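Tutorial handout. Part one gives the primary structure; part two gives the three-dimensional structure as tokens.
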Amino acid sequence: MPRNSITGQSMTEFLIIVPIVVVLIMGAVQLVFVYQAKTTLNYATFEAARAASLENASLSAMQAGLARGMAPYFTRPGSEALGSTEDLANVDETADVTQLAADVARGHQKAKDEIAAGYVHFERINPTPEAFDDAWAYDIGGGEREIPNDHLLFRASTPGGSSGLSIQDNNLLKIRVTWCMKLIVPFVNRFFVASARTLGTYDEDAAQWHTDRGSNIDGAWGNYEAWCLSSHERTPGDYRWPVVAHAVIRMQSAPRSCPGCFEP
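Part two.
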């Protein structure tokens, strides 16, 4: 075989393989970012549950706790000194600490901005709305009801008529947090979203994806997840992916119903 033919064949193979390898590398980088986000969200969700356990399982407490937990993810050095490798002996420690505090404050504000923009969805899985209709729950005014949190060791463990759980079980707070994180790796972000959308079609009226490919993936994306995956349609170039975390903790205050706080 002529040398030129071999060289041409090698070049063709190279041109075919290189784009595939580049895409795989970029995909791996994006998966690392997703894993980092998931790890941070796991911790932040526990912070949200712990804060809510002290404040009647309220949504505002969850939001505040999650923002604190997510602050490190959004914290970026704001000065060259923090990002440099200069000798520590030449660093102004006072200025360094001040700059670090400012960076953390910006990260905390960025986390709160994500929540305010609707990119974080909170669900209170337990206690359920039915738990506040059980016999032991009582009205506290303003349309709210409360489940007692005191003397749980000495209360009967009989399941409630509405929730089917005991008062002790209804004092376990379980939450699910879905963060619509931004995908930042070019091209791959579009691929991730496009792949997810192939699971079905999006029903704009119901704000939900539907699929006819089998019950195992039917309803794979709920209302919020579908809204998240459609972010680029509202803001061009803004491709986002839903990341989910759960947390369970014992209530340290009486759970309140908070009507309208935890919508689907």
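Part three, for discussion. The longest strand covers residues 172-182. The chain has one domain: 3-81+91-250.
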